Amino acid sequence: MEYQAPLIAGTLQRRYKRFLADISLDSGESITAHCPNTGSMLGCAEPGMRVWVSHTDRRGRKYAHTWEQVELRGGLRVGIHTGRTNRLVAEALLDPALIPEVADGGSLRAEVNVPDEPMRADFQLEGDGRFIEVKNVTAAVEAGVAVFPDAPSSRGVRHLEVLQRLAERGTGGMLVFCAQRSDVSEIRPADAIDPAYGRALRSAQHAGVAVIGVGASPDATGIRVNRRIPVVT
Predict the structure, then answer these.
(1) Chain segment 149-186, per-residue pLDDT in tens
(2) Which of 88, 152, 211, 228 is the most buried (most CB within 10 A)?
(3) How far apart are alpha carbons 28 and 45 in whole angstroms?
(4) What is the pTM of this model?
């Protein structure tokens, strides 16, 4: 995935109300940017961090800038825009070398209502009908291990319960974790943050839900999914 225009650098002053961030741009301008991440952004939203934003001239937008990336220690960039994740995973799903599990599943449909279930799946494979849910991983990493979720997520648990029921009925389901940072070598459920999610993940996996992880590397021009990451439950 390539950005349509170069990102704009700045320094994070504060993130607040979940969806807003005050940023001092390198140009000297102070802005309020949209924060497209509803999680706690554990380890990725400390004042003083170097950040990058995109800009749009689209009419009707209250905030013209959108927070895209943050820089951690050692110059590591992390993509925090959860709205980019589905596009990244869609590109990965079309690469049989990266995700061979869907090679025979046919083309993708995006944003599909799951019949008789309280869920709108991120994707469905038209060939075999499997539903795919995508989760973005940004949480702070220790020794290469990233965790999800970074805050209690009843919605995430509900999605897992739906995927489990689909698997039990023979429809099949898949959960794809996408880590938008290049230092991740393993993804685990965040049992200390949301034990209910960890239990639901293990239950769904035991019922036949495929759980896979992919890694993406953000840079100045875009974000590229370039590897598989083991999910350890």
Answers:
(1) 999 999 999 999 999 999 999 988 999 999 999 999 99
(2) 88
(3) 20
(4) 0.92
